[in-house]
Amino acid sequence: MQTCVPALIAVVAVGVALTGCSRHQAPAAPEPPAVLVTPVVQRDVAIYREWVAQLNGSVNAQISPKVSGYIIKRNYQEGYFVTKGQILFEIDVRPLRASLDQAKATVAGAMANLGNSKLNVARDTPLAKEKAIAQSQLDNDVQTMKANQAALDAALAEQETAELNLAWTKVRSPIDGIAGVAAAQVGNLVSTSSVLTNVSQLDPIRAYFSISESDYLSIAPRLSMIVHGEASSAVLGATDAQFIQANGLTFASRGRFVLVGREVNNTTGTIQFATEFENKGSLLRPGGFGRVRIKIGTEKDALLIPQQAVNEVQGEYQVVVLSADNKAEFRSVEVGERSGNDWIVTKGLKPNERIVVEGFQKLRNGTRVAAKPYTAAATAAAAEAS
Question: Which CATH class is domain 65-92+169-195?
Answer without folding.
Answer: mainly beta
